[in-house]
Sequence to fold (220 residues):
Amino acid sequence: MGKLLLVEDELDLSNQIRDWLQRDHHSVEVIDNGQLASDTLRVTQFDLIILDWQLPGLTGLEVCKQFRRRGGKTPVLMLTARSTVDDREQGLDSGADDYLCKPFHLKELSARVRALIRRAAGATANVLQAGPIQLEPSARRLTKDGVEVHLEPREFALLEFLMRNPNVVFNADALVTRVWETDTEISPDSVRTYIKALRKKLDQKELITTLHGLGYRLNS
Ligand code: CA
Fold:
């Protein structure tokens, strides 16, 4: 699961893709204009960008080029009706990581999305471990000492993010940006509530440390 930006100006298609990916437990923000997408990418961080080639405002190719020039590392999956070899090369030259030609099957899209997110997370292993806690992102399974623990989807997403970035301090604002959808109204106070819930459900006080005035850190 990840936080995805979908840039697509065909409304029917973007609705289909968004619904499909949400079923895969990703959070999806949709933008229908290239320039807006480029602006959003300056301020918001995503786990994956799905970028249509032909867009109003700015082409997907330009959005991708600009993003890479600014040092953006997020994987980019390009969508396009173009299918000649030259176009494909141009797309990959712009800094896209993968390429999907329209029309495509949504299952194919899911598979590419999963692969790109996994690759980016540097997680060749499908299991994240911290002390007695094991988290399997693809199976959405969490166990402690082998016993399954049930979490709410946002609790799971928050824990997964922290487990992918162990020993790094994130303040509440950073966690909101990385884990919640951009238009979600969630306050730093609610982050504290989520952390509390995690500690309680996992019965682990030392797993996530609160550094007063700084933020939270998952210890591994
Ligand atoms: Ca288009």
